[in-house]
Amino acid sequence: MSTTVSVSRERMRWQPETLAITAARLSLLVLTVGFAAAAVLGFSVPMRTQMIVYLVGMVALNLPHGGYEHFTNLRHRGLPFGARYVGIYLLAVAGFVALFFLAPVSALGIAFATAVAKGGHGDLHVMDAVVGSDHLKYRPQRALAALVRGGAVMILPLFLWRDVYIGFSQLMVSMFDPGAMGAVATRIETGAPVLLGGYAVALVAHLLGGFLTGGFSRDWLRDVGETGLLVAYFTVVPVVISIGLYFPLWYSMRQSGRSAVAHRAEPDDGLSTGAIWAVFVAGAFMTGTVAAALYLVAPNPLGVGNLLGGLVAFYTIFICVVAMPHVVVGQWLDRDRGIWYVP
Q1: Which long-range contacts (CB under 8 A, 24 or more apart) does 207-213 make?
Q2: Of 249, 290, 297, 334, which has the fewest Cβ atoms less than 10 A away?
Q3: pTM score > 0.90 for this model?
């Protein structure tokens, strides 16, 4: 009996989902410890280097995974559904770009809220599939867990790296209206401590509620460890690097683990390697077309900063434009399955 259990545990240790979760945790842990040590020793990373790291992480590593999420969501759904899905997605993209023209500050606020939703709700489904979420038995608990996980991505950097955060926000808004931020920057300055206080209350309520529901369970302890790691990561690592590497090293890697679980539960659809590559090429072409169109229609596509800063601003706005429908259309409106499907 004990031999069988040992073999089973050894097999689970080498499953793709287990490896993905472990790699994500180790990646953020190494970065957190490394930047904490650098801060103690008085070292800092030049902003130019931070922006290069951001672009490499978000463009080369994270963007392809977004296409993969849609592919795995649509591959079993058939052509009529897929056509409607893509059509609604493109309409949402066009509408969001229009909002940036009409009210760029409000649009950016929605984009940041989308990042919270993507990080939080995406992670919640990873917990359901791989890590464990038995201590989150009620819907308000799950909503709070998503808020705390996703809030770490946007709320902590706003308070702890305020000048850089606001500076890049102004640069992004300047793509559409250089003077739009204006007094909003001051309100963000004064509102940041309030947001941090609210986040701290939500964090304590989430962890305490999970304990009251599940006790010292393995799922709760893992939740405490992962949540604490996210808080430490976004506290210590500079905001440009922390956000640029969070999505490829945490979000995408963990979603790959969830995808492995979902894929094993489904029949093979018989798609050839060539057909899969054709879908990816078509998706890449469509994504590139959206980026090119955004560059052409934006009044100041690189904002009012230097070239590298402008590229960061442009890419961030582009990824915001495709991320909003990614979550809304790809998950919330697709109630039968969605991009974060858990069998």
Answers
A1: 209/141, 209/144, 210/135, 210/136, 210/141, 210/145, 211/135, 213/135, 213/136, 213/137, 213/138, 213/141
A2: 297
A3: yes
